[in-house]
Amino acid sequence: THNMPPGLEYLNQLDQIIIHQQVELLEAILGTETSSKYEIKNHLGQRVYFAVEENDCFDRNLCSPIRSFTIRIADNTGREVIRVKRPLRCNSCWFPCFLQELEVQSPPGTVAGYVVQNWDPFLPKFTIQNESKEDVLKIVGPCATCGCFEDVDFEVKALNEMSTIGKISKYWSGFVNNVFTNTANFGIQVPVDLDVRIKAVMIGACFLIDLMFFENSLDGL
């Protein structure tokens, strides 16, 4: 890839990316949210990156689904290679002015692309854009995202939405075993030759989808 951002070479040969949230013991026992930490793995389960969400406790507990956040993604040497930024936005499908948008940077400080929510009365829809805000791909979710703990697929499509080239999946069913059930396990499947910057943006899309549709789905269990 021309002028590949440092650290993204790990994504070059990947067509499957797994994102696994690490549930803090304190959070599991006390039920209070601490900063989210994630492992980003390849299809063999080997960690490629780890990610930490930055925000304050006020944001996490009072503004949960609409909160702003910055997620810093580092490689195994601790070098930050991707930064995901999302401003505070109201979460309402009825008001297009409140549609979600997220910026992905790689290296940090340099825009790699954007995830933009599209207004639709029935389906969750997003557009993946490159650093110049040109549309590259679409993401189309199902009409119901609470699938009673069944896997939920958001399809990655060409811009005309006719052909499906991949998917972002929320796995409920023991895909990645963990002591605690309310962990975010996502899988991203994309063409292996997709631009690495767009693969990085897809990781950002995964975090946005988790926040918008799944973060509070297991509260109280």
From TrEMBL:
GO cellular component assignments: plasma membrane
GO molecular function: phospholipid scramblase activity
UniProt-listed InterPro entries: Scramblase
Keywords: Calcium, Lipoprotein, Palmitate
UniProt keyword Cytoplasm present: no
Cofactor dependence: Ca(2+)
Known function: May mediate accelerated ATP-independent bidirectional transbilayer migration of phospholipids upon binding calcium ions that results in a loss of phospholipid asymmetry in the plasma membrane.
Family the entry assigns: Belongs to the phospholipid scramblase family.
Protein name in the entry: Phospholipid scramblase
Gene: Plscr5
